[in-house]
Write the structure tokens for this entry.
Amino acid sequence: MIAWVTVATLFLAQIVSTIDRGMLALVIDPVRRDLSISEMQIALLQGFAFSIFYVTVGLPLGAVADVVNRRRLLIGGIVIWSAATIAGGFAQGFGSMFASRLFIGVGEAVLGPCAVTMISDLFPPHRRGRPMALYVFGSMIAYGLGSLVSGVILDLAPRGVFAGLPIIGGLAPWRIAFALVGASGLLIVILLFLLREPARRSDAVTGSEPKLSFAEGLGLLAAQRGVFLPLYGSLALYAMGGSVATGWGAVFLTRAFGYHVGAAGKGLGTSQIAWSVAGALVASVVVDRVGARSGARGRTRLAGALSLLGIPSCLPLLSGSAPLAMVMLGEIMLVSAIYGTTMLSVISEITPTKVRGFAVALYAFVMTIIGASLGPLAVAWLTESVFASPAAVGRSMAIVGLCAFIAASLLAFRAASRITSDQRN
């Protein structure tokens, strides 16, 4: 029972973290107008700001999570990223918004290593699929909840609903949304104070691995680069393809179909939530079954197939109608719920215990620095420099998404072919 309460808390933390990170995608045009910044600068804010944090301290924090009290580390991370989100609502230019986004990156750097290693310590390998699916579901449903909640706030704010609130009542609607969403992280801090740090599963207890120092664990990862290089490459390119829909979907709806930003957020959010629920239900069953039948190799092959299933989400240009476009954009939540559960399960299964937190931090690093950074930048560059028209964002999304998803699939199958029998146990 305690184990599932911990998973539920981590699930909520994942929701708050993802909403804080992703809500900028819904208010791109209002932020551009208020801060007088370009399409490329928006793309930098969506991903590159997080990458800077990972390059400097993100990966070391993953290693720290392997040896310190993870509950306390996570509490500190939530306080920082919540304060940074609130600060984003008061940004006056590109520089101050960039600083806000950089510190929101603490959420991605701290949460993943802490949560995945805590789940790995609370459940044996053959029972990790469902709790891992619930944790990943948090990030999937968060995109929909973030779009929906932000859309409601953006609709209500112009009507004066928040006018009586101190400090933020007179701000622009998108600024009010940042402040209110950022403050919600303090609820997760309270919940974490009520929990205990899970006991770590030592190598001696599991009996599955020899005792390794951290340096020896890193050496083992390097020795198995034939598996880990294509595996992490697939993760990065999948994230690049996924960022097309999550980063530019709302903008596509406003530009292609003339939606008001609030209406686009509510419609897209509803679609994302529906697809996320379906994805979590499928992931909770499929990932464990595939793992039981064919281990890490089978799960990695599943990830390769899922990469191809993400392609419709980058092709809303072909929809012909706004409702169908929303369905196509939201479909990435279904695929990503299964994909994320699958890949995290693979990493926790084939990575030595001593470096598992680092491996999860590296997972978040490559998905952020390549996926969440290069994906939005590539779409922005094509739209601004090649097509030279904001209305061409749909074409840019299609080009970037197709290339990324196909390459991610090929690399996943490559990694699967190199996983050895001892790694599949």
